[in-house]
Amino acid sequence: MRFSINPSSVEPVYAQIARQAREAVARGTLRPGDQLPTVRELALELVINPNTIAAAYREMERAGLVRTLRGRGTFIAVIQAPASPAERRRQLQKHVEALLTEATHLGLSEEEILDAVRTVARKYRLREEKNDE
Amino acid sequence: MRFSINPSSVEPVYAQIARQAREAVARGTLRPGDQLPTVRELALELVINPNTIAAAYREMERAGLVRTLRGRGTFIAVIQAPASPAERRRQLQKHVEALLTEATHLGLSEEEILDAVRTVARKYRLREEKNDE
Amino acid sequence: MRFSINPSSVEPVYAQIARQAREAVARGTLRPGDQLPTVRELALELVINPNTIAAAYREMERAGLVRTLRGRGTFIAVIQAPASPAERRRQLQKHVEALLTEATHLGLSEEEILDAVRTVARKYRLREEKNDE
Amino acid sequence: MRFSINPSSVEPVYAQIARQAREAVARGTLRPGDQLPTVRELALELVINPNTIAAAYREMERAGLVRTLRGRGTFIAVIQAPASPAERRRQLQKHVEALLTEATHLGLSEEEILDAVRTVARKYRLREEKNDE
DNA sequence: GTGGTCTAGACCACA
DNA sequence: GTGGTCTAGACCACA
What we know:
The structure is a homotetramer.
Chain A: H1 13-27, E1 35-36, H2 39-46, H3 50-62, E2 66-69, E3 73-76, H4 85-105, H5 110-121
Helix pairs in contact in A: 1-3, 2-3
The structure holds a DNA duplex.
């Protein structure tokens, strides 16, 4: 996958990398077992301080997105066990609230938001059926 | 409105305050013209240094969320002109992508997300009708 | 003359009033001997704290623009003696530099600035002939 | 570039620094990509609290004059897109009016002002040709 | 009484 | 090493 970094964004560079990897996994561009470039390779490619790449990989490891095997490299982890249904619902609500706050300030309607969700959802590897809880 | 601060969050205190005010405006808890507590009042209430409150208000001013009238106080601004339709669409897409990335990692389905948007939307002051562009 | 106040400008209200009076004198809208409204009258008209109007009048008095006669009112002063030729040149240069800094950041050309000066100059009561020094 | 601070001016120290940087960019003394001294360096040089320098840099960032790269430093930004032609004209007129107000009070003639503009303009990086609008 | 400015100094996130 | 955050506290401009 290709990372694209904006060094003057308010989002820290290491967080941009971790977020983009997380997005790529959600879209299926990166799949469990895929190997990420080494810290040095990616540092050279993106012309970024290796410390920053290392911080990004540390963040992804912490989030359970990747597994680093010493001497072997860094690999996308198998899908992590989702949280409890209650926790999952709490998380979803939090993220939906963030979206609706921004959409309200942009002066958008509920219908426009739902349309955007439906359109963009095609690019993501969402669960096919409802969870039974 | 009530602000609630988590001093051990990674999110800076001043940013927590600004975000909560932004959310309150989106929900209609704060409306244009409403006066925010004075810097000193809020500092006393939250047991936080007045400089930190002032930084929060400065940030909101920069974002166009409030107007500061010297010697008078800080007030919620009238709704700022939204960006161009193209920019608005770009912003919406960005926020929807963030939601879908998280929802995918939580193992949720499109229907569950749409349901959550519909339910939570009731708490927000979204535009009633579609924008004509 | 009519003052128009923007309470949310970065320019303090008292300074807006003093500046507008200064402009009116430069354009001939106000002339030496003209009486200004009383502090109370102007405070009522502009819906502004009388302390603020008093500060504006104090500022104009300090700049030699008006004379306050106790019990009589506030009047536009006769044209103040201009500074020495050297000081006058220094002042002019300072104000021209301020204009050129802004014009450069706006991406304007020398010709556009000169045109604007010629056009706008008609509204001002500039000296007719060159000073002989 | 050299900053020179007058601590007893009515203009806040942080604003003096921001203004001088803005002037230096207009004259070409500072160019896009140039790095400003670090907050600590400039604080030592000017014998001013680092927080005050940081406030100056924050203000320049807000105005789009510089870009701050976390952990790297502060750099002059590429020239910001100027406002719309109409807005540009409005701004120019405002600044020309300010100049003419002062020049009138100094008892100067139109010819003297135009001469000063022509002379001082050489020091600025004004656009070479008229804008076509 | 309101927010704005500035100092002094500790500690942290980031590259 | 770079800027960012936060506290504590003095003093000032403005309304």
